[in-house]
Design goal:
It comes from Kineobactrum salinum. One of its GO terms (cellular component) is cytosol. There is one protein chain. The protein is an alpha/beta fold. It has 2 domains: 152 residues, SPOUT methyltransferase, trefoil knot domain (Alpha/beta knot, 3-Layer(aba) Sandwich); 69 residues, tRNA(m1g37)methyltransferase, domain 2 (Trp Operon Repressor, Chain A). It contains 9 helices and 9 strands. The longest helix is centred in the C-terminal third of the chain and has 19 residues. The chain binds adenine.
């Protein structure tokens, strides 16, 4: 997959392109990662990327031309089918299903805004989709773009080792994850649940599924509403 970001702070993206699972995917060439800074597409002495809003009001708005040219530079380097996404609290909510959908794309261009936002005409002319990562306001789209990049990359074939499959992720089955434990068996008086030491794989599987169901029901009942339970899940939830 090819990913390009358009941002005034491209260095921030080192957090995903240079570290951990996502950094390894980039290092192995499973993902190419590029960035384009709108400030490089200005022609005035001050390299101005923002201006005062028409109609008045606080804050500044990002000008259309530098952003449009940065997007054009990104498009020129990527497959022509690149999907262009703008991150903002006004977007539709990003979730696991959207991560799976975006993981099918050949190339993505993620546009991160700053200030009060970008000139609306950029959204009309260049943006395929506007995404939000949640109902709160960040100081810029970079962190949101990194959330999307991380969630998408881990769904690409070959990125997670088989011992840590994306299929095992919380949400892959529409449920929250079960609890996890490692050594020691007892720590400060707290013991690991016996069943996990039993070696009985079927009992362990059922215990984990029951834990996942119970947590989901308690913490995120909305997830269960959008999902039909199997006979076994109904049985475990009733126990
Ligand atoms: N930019 C600022 N806040 C954001 C959010 N919640 N989601 C996506 N982009 C944003």
């Amino acid at each position: 997959m090819q990913i390009a970001v358009v941002s005034l702070f491209p260095e921030m993206f080192g957090a995903v392109s240079e570290h951990g699972v996502t950094g390894r995917a980039v290092g192995q060439g499973l993902v190419t990662f590029g960035h384009h800074n709108p400030r490089d597409y200005t022609d005035d002495r001050h390299r101005t990327v923002d201006d005062r809003p028409f109609g008045g009001g606080p804050g500044m708005v990002m000008k259309i031309a530098p952003l449009q040219q940065a997007i054009a530079a990104a498009r020129a380097q990527l497959a022509p089918v690149a999907r262009v996404i703008y991150l903002s609290p006004q977007g539709t909510r990003f979730d696991h299903a959207k991560a799976l959908e975006l993981a099918q794309a050949q190339s993505l261009i993620l546009v991160a805004g700053r200030y009060e936002g970008v000139d609306e005409r950029l959204l009309e002319s260049e943006i395929d989709e506007e995404l939000s990562i949640g109902d709160y306001v960040l100081s810029g789209g970079e962190l949101a773009a990194m959330v999307v990049v991380d969630a998408v990359i881990r769904q690409l074939p070959g990125v997670l080792g088989h011992e840590l499959s994306a299929l095992e992720d919380s949400f892959a089955d529409g449920l929250l994850d079960c609890p996890h434990y490692t050594r020691p068996e007892v720590y400060q008086g707290r013991a690991v649940p016996d069943v996990l030491l039993s070696g009985d794989h079927e009992r362990i599987r059922r215990w984990r599924l029951k834990q996942a169901l119970g947590r989901t029901q308690q913490r995120r009942p909305d997830l269960l509403e959008g999902r039909t339970l199997t006979a076994e899940e109904q049985e475990l939830l009733a126990l």
